[in-house]
Amino acid sequence: MNIKKNKPKAQFSNKWGFLLAAMGSAVGLGNIWRFPGQAYESGGGAFIIPYLVAILTAGIPLIILEFNLGNLLRGSAPKSYAKINRKMEALGWFQTLISFGISTYYNIILAYVGLYTIYAFSLAWGSNTTQFFLHEVVQVTDNISIQGELSTAVAAMYTGLWIVIALISITGVQKGIEKVNKIIIPLLLIMFASVVAYAISLDGAINGLNAFFTPDFSKLTDPQIWLNAYSQVFFSLSVAFAIMITYSSYTKKNTDVTSTAITTALGNSSVELLAGIGIFAALGFMSQSQGIPINEIASKGIGLTFFVIPEVLNHMPGGAIIGVLFFGSLLLAGISSLISVLEVVVAALIDKLRINRKLAVVLTASLAWLMGIAFLFGNGLSLFDIFDNAINKTALISGGILEIILILLLFRKPILKHINRTAPIRFGKGYIFCLSMTAFILISIFSYNIYEDYFHTENGYGGYGLQNNLIYGLIPMMVLVAISIGLSFIPWKKEDLEEIKTFKKEKS
């Protein structure tokens, strides 16, 4: 049989390009706006202990697994999993669709950040930062059932960012993704390090750092703190999004991706700690200058980024310059992450449908842009909150659980052999044990989240009501499962099917 050969696979030019792209994916909004508040709520300095344990026992083992899966299987998530077992292809599509789902609302937050980068030049948010964000920027409605007005400023920034990200992706792996990350990541680190250095020089900064690092060891006996630590590591490293499998498939065969995985994990955690230092140093300044206890202003997520930080900048010497650097670095972090999320879907479409990159990018970005419009209206912030919660707490974790269990059951020996072929140290039973324990911990986190969000309280997650949590959260996740299964039944092209069969024969 004369089978047409596939085109040579796109590749990063070297390990440095791959590392920066992986760092660009891992370092995102969650590092800067989620980690500091999470750490503070979970015992301050004491949280560092379970956090480091989680990195060593789950974060690093998981990212090593995904880097090596991509390097060995050399395909998008659906194609890679199909090489292991055809029935696993649906899991690959599920993880791919999770990334697509995230892309529909992630860029909304980036649009807010982009606007605030501009607003920072003149501190345009004024004295009432909460009022400005909710009513001037978002134009939020009082009820999730009331759609409200479309925010034109956010819509314009949102559309512009999608165009920029699509153009970067269209230019390819080396000329687009790699080249942009080689600029973005060093610039991001320089800008953010400058913000942190300035923050710790402010009067009162030491009070904020004491609040952040002073340990409350009594918290270590609370299982929820350990679940928080593992959740933070899991989310921030971009594992189970199909991102790292996709990116590592662009590395040269038998490359030592294990060392790069460890570097990525440690680099990501360093940025999170740096963010905690900078944010709490700034909160310490705010506390001293305004006479407000730190526990009354410490926050995370949207509240920290768009309510608290602008208020701090209002009272900070040189607040406009620092604001531009802060929101600018946040924007760069978000762009590099969204590029990777888009690439997951693009790679899957190219593999499955054999369409060209330009068409795959245009289709994916256009559909994501169109679906994201729902989040631009006055009730969009509530919709985002429910949908994001369901994706992160339900879909992402369940996908990660299935990934680990199925790999250990069906592909343990081949992947361990591949890791040890290139890794600087030998991996064996200890590594397998860490992965097994990670699956157990993720099952615990998943069960706890489902109980809390849908059974524990009458109104469900966020007080939105159980019905809204089902309609905008859990049911869409079930739809993703159904679509994933459907996509897995689309037949592969002859050359791809032959590649899948050949791989299975070689590994059997």
Largest sheet: none
Q: Helicity level, as a percent range? A: over 70%
CATH structural fold name: Amino acid/polyamine transporter I
CATH class: Mainly Alpha
**Shape type:** globular
- The assigned CATH architecture is Up-down Bundle
In percent terms, what proportion of residues is strand?
Answer: under 5%
Count of all domains: 1
Low-confidence stretches: none
What value does the Rg take, in angstroms?
22 Å
Number of helices, where a helix is a run of at least 4 consecutive DSSP H or I residues:
22
For CATH, the homologous superfamily is named as Amino acid/polyamine transporter I
Q: Mean pLDDT score, rounded?
A: 93
Order of helices and strands: HHHHHHHHHHHHHHHHHHHHHH
> In total, how many beta strands?
0
* Secondary structure category: mainly alpha
- The rounded distance between the terminal residues' Cα atoms is 22 Å
Blueprint of the fold:
Blueprint: H1 15-26, H2 29-33, H3 35-41, H4 48-73, H5 77-84, H6 89-119, H7 129-137, H8 152-170, H9 173-200, H10 205-213, H11 223-236, H12 243-248, H13 257-290, H14 294-297, H15 301-315, H16 319-353, H17 357-372, H18 380-410, H19 412-422, H20 429-456, H21 466-488, H22 494-507
